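Task 17 of the worksheet. Students: predict the tertiary structure of the chain below and write it out as structure tokens. Keep your answer in the requested format; marks are given for formatting as well as content.
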Amino acid sequence: MKLMFMKTKYKGTCALVAIIVGATVFLLGPHSPKLDGTSNGDPDLAARTQAFLGDDLGLTTLHVSVITRNSISHAGLGHDSNGKSPDHSTPMPLGSITKTFNGQLLADSIQRGEVTATDPVEKHLPELAGSPAGKATLEELASHRGGIPVNLNGIELYLQAGAGNYPTPTDTAGYLNQVRSLPVSAEKTFRYSNVGATLLGSALARAAGIDSWEIFARDRLFEPVGMAKVTFANTLGDIPAEAPPGSWTNGRRVMPFYGEDQAPAGTSTYITPDAMARYAQAILNDTIPGGTTAQEPRWQVAANVWMGYHWEIQDRDGHRLISHSGGTSTASTQLIIDKEAGKAVMVYSNTGFTGISTAELAEHLLHGSDKHTPYAAMWTELGPIQVAITAIFILFLAFAAIRGDGPASRLAAGIRVTEVLSCLTLTWVLGPWGIAPGWLFGIPLALGSYAIARAVVRWCDLPSLPGKHRWYFYARIAVALAVVAISGWLVWPKY
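Model answer:
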């Protein structure tokens, strides 16, 4: 009878503790970033942008540019974690919009007679001779029809970036060596590929007799157009100090992309809004190297969507739009151009992989479109993975909270507390808090608090070691320490 009373008392006390601790999530729980309402630059442009976004979640800073053939308007909104607000001179991560540089450079190289559109890439990159990827033509690479996968490391890149890390890049030679063994699909249908864009840029530079794609792009594009302050971050230290730190949609600050290996695909490009506006104006005025050839619709990839040389082309409401988006671990960008209207819009945010909303904002500023998907409701690229991981952690915490009457020894109690704390940490860091309200973290927090409280209140009544099956507990110690190490690695500041 006494034992039953004590068990009941323990459970009541633990439940009370769990409720109190779980309730604190309303104040301390994870949350998506949010603009703070401050702005600079063109006040009308800032007001239009803020009115469209409303109370949207997902970012701390935003910069927009509206460009015509003869004018440029800029507006910056919010502050980054360093207290800085982006303006027209702030270096911003560009992401995959860099690929449009490749498209224009391909057209320019064809006009110069250095390459033809049907050249296999191995013709200019002999390192790939005899490999499956080497057979892809330059125009196939420029239209994502080469059958080449999106990345060398697949989902690993997204997982590590979302956790705050970034796979260590290599140099161009090392990257090409890895590409040699890359499997290639025989179907020449649209398949977005960062690898293909990288091969195209490297091949064009090599055909021009230039080993560095960075130097090639500066000589052939940036200097002729007057695009100053374009930086390629080959190392972490090359990232401009003024660039706004970025985060994932769940608020987790993450390491930015960098490295020479995929520079033509856009992993390392930092550019000021001023420089990007010059690029858009050159396109509007048809003074861009390569001319309009890169912007012609050549291959249909979806209903009313075509590819040019790395440009996406759509006909909408009697207007032909050319565009490209960009997404990295720390930024989401969108460039959209209506040449008939003589107008372009460029959007930069410091939240990774939120391109749908940046595209909708760009279209709103271009033509007044009212379509808007809030950041908090978006299904990001990691959404399904985040939800699955979080569900596993919650199930574990529920199991730890309800199994038996608690641990049978102090050793088991210590293991359980360690496991629970690690799972709570991982749920906080990796949870889908960009698409789910942060207060839901109270569920795993309450379950974890209950399990910890049960272990604590019974501590004095427990033997130090289990009476049997000690090997099982020693194995759990090893697993628990591994989970702690992983958790610590994930939460330790990377940048």
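Marker's comment: The chain has two domains: 2-30+382-491, 56-377. The first strand starts at residue 39 and ends at 41.
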